[in-house]
Amino acid sequence: MERVPILKIGDILLVSIQLDMSDQTAVALQEDLAQRIVDTGCHGVIIDITALDIVDSFVGRMLSTIASISKVLDAETVVVGMRPAVAITLVELGLSLNGIRTALNVERGMELIAAAHADELDYQLDDEPDAETATP
Amino acid sequence: MALSTEESGRLVALLSGQDERVTTRWTEIVTSSLRGRLSQAELRRQVQDLHRAIVASGEQGTIDLSADSAAELRAALSELSRGRARQGFSATETTISVFALKDVVAELVQEAGGADALKDYVAFSKLVDEMGLFTFESFVRTRESLIADQAEQLLELSTPVVKLWEGVVAVPLVGTLDSARAQVVMERLLQTLVDTGSPYAIIDITGVPAVDTQVAQHILKTVVAARLMGADCIISGIRPQIAQTIVALGIEFGDIATKASLADALRHVLRLNGVETARRQPRRDI
Known about the structure:
The structure holds 2 protein chains of 2 kinds. By secondary structure, chain A is α/β, with parallel strands linked by helices. Chain A has one domain (about 5-135): STAS domain (Transcription Regulator spoIIAA, 2-Layer Sandwich), CATH 3.30.750. Chain A has helices spanning about 25-40, 55-70, 85-95, 105-125, 130-135; strands at about 5-10, 10-15, 45-50, 75-80, 100-105. In chain A, strands 1-2-3-4-5 form a 5-stranded mixed β-sheet, sandwiched between helices. Chain A is globular and about 45 Å long. Chain B is built from 10 helices and 5 strands, in the order H-H-H-H-H-H-E-E-H-E-H-E-H-E-H. By secondary structure, chain B is an alpha/beta fold. Chain B has 2 domains: about 5-155, Globin-like (Orthogonal Bundle), CATH 1.10.490; about 160-275, STAS domain (Transcription Regulator spoIIAA, 2-Layer Sandwich). Chain B has a 5-stranded mixed β-sheet, sandwiched between helices. Helix content of chain B is about 65%, strand content about 10%. Chain B starts with a helix and ends in a 13-residue tail after the last helix. In chain B, helix 8 (about 215-230) links the parallel strand 3 (about 200-205) and strand 4 (about 230-235). Chains A and B meet through strand 4, helix 3, strand 5 and helix 4 of A and helix 7 and helix 8 of B. Chain B: Keywords: Phosphoprotein. Chain B: InterPro entries: Bact_StressResp_Reg (IPR051932), RsbRD_N_dom (IPR025751), STAS_dom (IPR002645), STAS_dom_sf (IPR036513).
C-alpha cells in the first residue's frame, strides 16, 4: 500500500496528495499525521491538493476528518491549491467543505498559519512579557 | 426525387444546346430581383457555375440531388448560398437565383414543343424546387453558424478580469447574466486567481441591468467557489433599485461583503491588506 509522505517545514507539516485516495490510504494518512503532529509539536498542517483532478464527497470527508483531528491536537489545517474545475464541481454538488480553511497556494497557506499562530503567540506573550527578549 | 435517364438527357440537351442564351436569360432574371446589389459579371459567373454543374451531373445519367454524382452541383449550390448569406442578402433573394432557372426552362420547353413538353417541364421544375430547398437550407445553416460565432465572440469580449492592485482582481460584469455567461465568468475568475495568486476578487455588477434570484444564485456560486480555493470575494456596484429588488426577493448574501461602489470595495480590500489610504495636501499651482 502506498503512503502519502508528510514533510516538515519549520513549524508546519506539509502533506501533498499525489495519488488517488482509497479508504486504506486515507486511514493511514490520518494515523501518520496525528502521530507526526504529536511527535513534532507542529502548529500547522498544509494539505496540497494541486494534483487532484477529482474531489468527491469521500475526499471531502477525509479532509474534514483530518482538519478535526488536527484541531484536537492544536494544529491549524489549511487546504491549498484547489483547481478551478474542482471548486466549480464542489459548488455544483453543493459540498462546501465546512470548517476547512483554504488558500490559493502553499505560500499563502504558510502565511495564513503564521498569522494565526502569531495571534496565539501575542496572547501567550501577554502572560510572560519577557519570553521573547530572553531568547538571543 | 430523381429525374429519369431520358428526362435528364432531354434537360441536358436543352440547357447545353444554347448555353449562352440560357446563362444570359438566367442572369437577366436574377439581376432584376437583386436590384443591382451584385455586379452583372459576378452574377454571370455564379450562374455559369451552376449551369455547368447541372449539365455535368446530367451527363452522368440521372440527376439526383442526393446522389454522389451530384456532389459538384451540391457544392455549387452551397457555395452560392454561403456567399449570399455572408453578403447579407435575404433568403428570398438567395433562392430566387435558383428558381429563375424555371422561367428559363419554361421558355426553352415551350419553343422545343413536343408531346412530352408538359411532363418534362413538371419533372424539371421539381428538380429546381429541390435545388431551391437545398439552397435555402444551406443559407440557414450559414446564418446560424454566423450567429453562433458572434455569440461566442460576445461571450469572450464581455468578461474581462482586470488586476486592480497587487493581489486584487476585479470582474466588471456588463449585460445580463445567464447560465452560460455565469459559467464563463466563474471559470475565468477562478483561473485568474490561480494564475496571479490573488487572494481577493471584486465582482462589480454596475453593468448588470437586473438582478433576480437566478443571477444572485450564479454570483453566490462564484463566491463560494472562490472561497473554496482560498480567495475572498466582494460584491460591488449595487445600485439603489437593485438593493431594493434584492431585499424584496429575499436574497441573502450571508457574510459576503457588499459595497456600493468599486472604489469602496477596493478601499475595503486595501484596509484588510493593511494598506492605508491617506489624503495628502493637494498640489497648488502658483
